[in-house]
């Protein structure tokens, strides 16, 4: 098939398999280390407060590297950046498993973060070239399904590994998967067109400073002693961000994809995405406190009652992905976020006499709403850009997700600092309001000609789906 018409079978199946292997490892390692922090602190004789950098180093590195590496994907080809990212992630995983002290482990996690950013920065761009346009929605739906299932099983998988082995095995399990993905990717991944031009090193450094200052500043706002420093970090991020945008304007293919924001459909999809992922983290961080302290549930009950959310996200991802090939993303994503907002309001209004069924169907409703939003919105974001700028769109998509999650987590911490007693319920109310704002942004796309129903492409002969 031509480059923009996807891959033939069975190459498509092998290509999407290697992409999903990398995605699973990159997403999993963003959260799986959380559960092992006490074990790592004891084993390495490290201060628990410093041990948190095992998590922060990875997340921060991924965030600051996404846009520069997505730009490299446009320049060098997405396959090359993905494979180098995969190899870097593999080396980082080996070094994490072999670390004998906390500084070594944190340094290895930084290397892992660079590899994870290489994987995630071109993930959606590769999916665009793996699937033909008529089946792109289901490809993105599968992508969302993989992320949803990975997030759902991450804590349980981490606990299982720690039950049978020590903490280094959390990183060692990546090694055979990464080797297999590298071997398959050599022949399976599509050769995407490269666009030879100079890499903008000054903008890459400035971009890293801007996003690093934003993430650290937002995180510091949640801790009373650091709020002044956090505010200073945010002011610095805004000022340097303005300079970065000015530097990027007028460039043909800027590192920070300001050119893509000329598309109203892309801009509104990014705004919707930020609101939805901020909502997700507001709810995910506050729900355990709400269920345990407000509704008097045990730790085991809390885990079970939250489980319907990620399960419904995974179940709805494929359905909404297929629907996005027929109906406008504005309606599908907007309806999903309205559903999510309604589920959160329902949870916030529960009393102490609420039954487990009352809680479970509301968390399931939240999962259905989030799952219904994700695939159509991601598809709208990637198809609103020309194929040669797929890397920039993919990087913007991943960066928006991480910034939304970071902001949501920081808002919960800030609420707990202001009012520990009512913070969990208040966070759910804020989450419902942010989801409603996201729904309004999404539905406003109906006025845009860019959000018209996807055009019917030339029919293809039937073939088995990946």
Automatic annotation (TrEMBL):
It is a multi-pass membrane protein. It holds the Pfam family MFS_1. The keyword rRNA-binding does not apply. SUPFAM superfamilies: MFS general substrate transporter. Residues 15-450 form the Major facilitator superfamily (MFS) profile domain. PROSITE patterns: MFS. GO terms for cellular component: plasma membrane. It is found in: Cell membrane. GO terms for molecular function: transmembrane transporter activity. Keywords: Cell membrane, Membrane, Transmembrane, Transmembrane helix, Transport. The keyword Transport applies. This is MFS transporter.
